[in-house]
Design brief:
This protein has 23 helices and 22 strands. With 699 residues, it is of the alpha/beta class. The structure holds adenosine-5'-diphosphate and magnesium ion (MG).
Length: 699
C-alpha cells in the first residue's frame, strides 16, 4: 500500500533531483499527487501502423520495426539518428537529448514498438524523441492500452520516463485501497449515472481495459471535481450566511436620504437601484455581507459604492474604499469628494505618496473616528492604519489584489469582520463565476446608464493610417481628446518601447505643437512622472495621451472620444474591451479604432471581429474563455480556478450543470450532511477543509 502523503523524493528510484523537477513541472510533491496526474491519452498496442501508410498529416503513430542503422551525427555529434524498417518502408528516428540513455538500447536488427509524434520537414517524415519499447524485454507491460502521461524533457533526461512511470503506477494501482480513496459521492448518484466507484475510476484512468472504460472513469472523475467544488462553495456560503455575524446597518439615515433626495446627479438605472437594495438588505441582516459586484465598464459602479458607503456611515461606521492604482484611488477620491461635498462628509485619501506629516495627522483622525470615508491604495492595509469602527470595505477591480491583502483588510475591523463588496469590471462567464465565486453573493449591473451612444468600433489596416489620423483631427477640432495605446509586454519590452517612441514621433508630426499637446505614459516611468502626465491629460492641457496599457483600468475622462489601439491583435479580448470602455462616457459619438497589420492569426481575427460586433462585456467574456480557456480569464487567476485536474468549464458544461444540480439538491435537503447517505461526502469535505485552510474566499 503506497503512503499517499509520502514526499515523492523518498520513493525508490526518484530522489531529490527528479522530485524537484516534478514539483516544478506539475506541482507534484507527494505520492498521492502523482497518482492524481492522469494520463492524457492511451496507445492501443494492437493498432500498429505500417510505415508506408503513414501520412504527413498524421499526428501520433505506433510502429513496430527493426533497427537497420544508427549513428551520432552533427558537428559536435550532438544528434542521434536511427533508421528502422518494418518491411513496408523506412523511418528516421532522431534524438537531440538523452542520447546516453538511448544509444545503449539500440542494436542493429533489434525490434521495437516505437511510438511518437511525427515531424515533417522538407516533405520528409521523421519521429523526434520517440518512445521505444523493446518487444522482448521482460518488463514490457502487458496491457493493451498503454497510458501516456504529460512529461517534460528534463524529466525524461533525468530518467523519469514513461516506462519508469508506468511501472510505478502499475505497482501502486495494484496496492491502493478504498480506505485511501474513499467514496464521497452518495450511492444514489453513482447508481443514477452508472459511475464506477472512486477507487475503480482511478485505477481505470491509469490502466483501462478499453477506451469506453477510460471514458466512463474520466466522466466520473470530472463530475466528482465539479461536484466537490460546488458542494464546498455552497456549504461555505451557507455557513457564512448563518454563522459569521456582521454589523447591523439597521437604518437608512441622514446622509443617504439627503444625498438621494437632493444631490444625486442623475436618475439611477434600475440595475443600480436593485443592487443598492440588495446591499441594504444584506447589511441589515446581522450577518456578514460578502458580495461580488459585477458591472461592465461604464455601468456606474462608483455611485453604487458611494451609496453603500453612506448606509454604513449613517449607522456610525467607517468605510474604506481600496483601488489597485494610485491614479484610480485619486480619481475615486476626487469624484466622490465632489459628490458628497454638500453633505459635509469627512473623506480622505491615503496612498503611498501621502506626505509623512499629512499621514500622521490622517492616521490620528482615522483612529479617533473623525474620518468617515477613507479612499486609498495598498497603503490602507499597512499596520499603522487603525480604524475606530470599520464597518464596510469596498475593493475596486479585485483581480489586482492578492488574497493576503484582502485578509489583512478584514482584520482591521473589530470585533466583527467588516462587510465586503468586491467590484469588478471584468465580466466573468457564468459557469466560471459559479465555480470561483460560488460562495459569494453576486450582484450584476447589467444595464448601462441611458443616453449613451454606442461606441463605433473600426478596424483599420496600416494603409488606412491617414484615415485614422483624419478622424482624430476631426474630433480634436471639436475639443475632444484621444488615447493612443500601445502594447507592452515584458518579453519584448525593448521593441515595444521603441514602437511607442516611433508612434509618438509620428503623432508629433501629424499633430504638431503649439496647437496640439501630447502626454506620454508608460510602465517604465517613475510613478510621479506618470501621475504628472496623466494629470495634464485629465486637465485637458494635452489633447492626446500616448500610453501603454497602464490606463487599462478605471480611468474616467469623459471628454475623450477616441481610443486608438495600435497592434490591437496583440491584446487579449477583455483587455481590448476594457480599453474601449475608456471612451463613450459622455453623450457624444465616440470611436474605438483597432489598428493592425494585414496578417492576423486566427485568434487575432476572432478578437478583432468580436470587438466590431458586440459591446456586451459578458458576450466578450464568453468568447475570451473560448479562446484562452477558463484558466486564463482575468479576474479569476488568483482565486483557485485552476483547482481542476481533469474538468474543464468550457468543454464539460453539461457535466458541470449536472454536478451543480446534484450538489444543490443534496445541500438543500441536508445542509449539515447529517443523513447516512451523505456520510462519505461529509467526511471527504471535512478532511479537505482541514487540509487547506481556505483564505481565498475572503471577499
Ligand atoms: P464604472 O462602472 O466603469 O466604474 P463609473 O462609476 O465610473 O463606471 O461611471 C461611468 C460614468 O457614468 C460616470 O461618469 C458616471 O458619473 C456616469 N453614471 C453612472 N451612473 C449613471 C446614471 N444612472 N445615469 C447617468 N450617468 C451615470
Ligand atoms: Mg470604476
Amino acid at each position: 500500500m503506497p503512503d499517499l502523503d509520502q514526499p515523492i523524493e523518498y520513493v525508490k528510484g526518484i530522489g531529490p533531483r527528479k522530485a524537484e523537477l516534478l514539483k516544478k513541472a506539475f506541482s507534484v510533491t507527494t505520492v498521492g499527487d502523482l497518482i492524481l496526474q492522469y494520463p492524457f491519452r492511451y496507445i492501443d498496442k494492437t493498432n500498429i501502423t505500417l510505415i508506408k501508410n503513414i501520412k504527413p498529416t498524421d499526428e501520433w503513430v505506433l510502429i513496430k520495426a527493426k533497427v537497420t542503422n544508427f549513428d551520432l551525427i552533427g558537428s559536435s555529434k550532438g544528434r542521434l539518428v536511427a533508421f528502422v524498417t518494418d518491411g513496408s518502408g523506412f523511418m528516421e528516428l532522431v534524438w537531440f537529448q538523452g542520447i546516453k540513455w538511448i544509444q545503449p538500447m539500440l542494436a542493429i536488427g533489434k525490434e521495437f514498438l516505437i511510438y511518437g509524434k511525427i515531424n515533417v520537414f522538407n516533405n520528409k517524415i521523421s519521429l523526434p524523441h520517440p518512445e521505444l519499447e523493446s518487444n522482448t524485454s521482460q518488463d514490457a507491460i502487458s496491457e493493451v492500452l498503454m497510458p501516456i502521461y504529460s512529461t517534460t524533457d528534463p524529466l525524461n533526461r533525468a530518467g523519469f520516463d514513461m516506462k519508469f512511470r508506468r511501472g510505478l503506477m502499475e505497482s501502486w494501482m495494484k496496492s491502493i485501497t478504498p480506505y485511501q480513496f474513499p467514496e464521497m459521492l452518495p450511492e444514489a448518484l453513482i447508481n443514477h449515472y452508472k459511475f464506477p466507484a472512486r477507487i475503480d475510476a482511478i485505477r481505470q484512468m491509469h490502466f483501462p481495459k478499453n477506451l469506453a472504460e477510460a471514458t466512463r472513469a474520466k466522466d466520473r472523475l470530472i463530475f466528482e471535481e465539479f461536484f466537490i467544488n460546488q458542494a464546498s462553495l455552497m456549504i461555505q456560503k451557507l455557513y457564512r450566511k448563518n454563522n459569521i455575524k456582521g454589523y447591523v446597518f439597521g437604518q437608512i439615515g441622514h446622509y443617504f436620504n439627503t444625498f438621494y433626495k437632493d444631490h444625486l446627479p442623475f436618475e439611477l438605472t434600475n440595475a443600480q437601484k436593485r443592487v443598492i437594495k440588495e446591499i441594504r438588505i444584506d447589511s441589515g441582516s446581522g450577518f456578514q455581507l460578502n458580495r461580488l459586484l459585477q458591472g461592465d465598464v461604464g455601468s456606474g459602479k462608483t455611485i453604487v459604492a458611494l451609496m453603500a458607503s453612506l448606509i454604513a456611515i449613517d449607522n456610525g461606521y467607517q468605510v474604506c474604499i481600496m483601488a489597485p492604482l494610485e491614479i484610480l484611488a485619486q480619481q475615486h477620491f476626487r469624484s466622490i469628494k465632489k459628490l458628497v461635498e454638500p453633505l459635509g462628509l469627512k473623506v480622505e485619501l491615503l496612498t503611498g505618496s501621502t506626505k509623512k506629516k499629512e499621514r500622521v495627522e490622517l492616521l490620528k483622525r482615522l483612529e479617533s473616528g473623525d474620518i468617515q470615508l477613507l479612499i486609498g491604495t495598498h497603503a490602507v492595509i499597512e499596520p499603522p492604519v487603525i480604524f475606530k469602527q470599520l464597518g464596510l470595505v469596498i475593493i475596486d477591480e479585485q483581480h489586482r489584489f492578492g488574497v493576503e491583502q484582502r485578509a489583512a483588510l478584514w482584520r482591521k475591523a473589530t470585533p466583527l469582520p467588516p462587510h465586503v463588496i468586491v467590484m469588478t469590471a471584468t465580466p466573468i462567464p457564468r459557469t466560471l463565476a459559479m465555480s470561483v465565486y460560488g460562495d459569494l453573493d453576486v450582484s450584476v449591473i447589467d444595464e448601462l446608464p441611458p443616453g449613451r451612444k454606442p461606441i463605433k468600433t473600426l478596424h483599420f489596416h496600416e494603409m488606412k493610417r491617414t484615415e485614422m489620423e483624419m478622424l482624430m483631427h476631426r474630433e480634436l477640432a471639436i475639443g475632444r481628446q484621444a488615447f493612443v495605446v500601445f502594447p507592452l509586454i515584458e518579453e519584448s519590452e525593448k521593441v515595444d518601447l521603441e514602437n511607442l517612441q516611433m508612434g509618438y514621433d509620428r503623432l508629433f508630426i501629424s499633430f504638431p505643437p503649439p496647437k496640439y499637446q501630447i502626454s506620454v505614459v508608460h510602465g517604465r516611468m517613475k510613478a510621479a512622472d506618470k501621475e504628472h502626465e496623466m494629470q495634464r491629460f485629465v486637465k485637458h492641457q494635452t489633447n492626446i495621451l500616448v500610453a501603454t496599457t497602464v490606463i487599462e483600468v478605471g480611468v474616467d475622462i469623459p471628454n475623450a472620444s477616441v481610443m486608438v489601439i495600435e497592434n490591437a491583435d496583440r491584446f487579449g479580448l477583455s483587455q481590448l474591451h476594457q480599453l474601449r470602455g475608456r471612451v463613450g462616457r459622455g453623450a457624444d459619438q465616440s470611436y474605438c479604432i483597432l489598428m493592425t497589420g494585414f496578417k492576423l492569426s486566427a485568434d487575432g481575427k476572432t478578437r478583432v471581429k468580436t470587438m466590431e460586433e458586440t459591446d456586451n462585456g459578458f458576450t466578450i467574456a464568453e468568447v475570451d474563455m473560448q479562446l484562452r480557456g477558463p484558466g486564463n480569464i482575468e479576474g479569476t487567476q488568483q482565486s483557485g480556478s485552476n483547482e481542476f485536474q481533469l474538468a474543464n468549464l468550457l468543454t464539460h458544461q453539461a457535466i458541470f450543470k449536472a454536478a451543480n444540480d446534484a450538489a444543490m439538491k443534496i445541500i438543500t435537503e441536508d445542509p449539515k450532511l447529517e443523513k447516512p447517505q451523505n456520510k462519505g461526502l461529509r467526511e471527504f469535505l471535512s478532511t479537505r477543509f482541514r487540509k487547506n485552510k481556505d483564505w481565498s474566499k475572503i471577499g
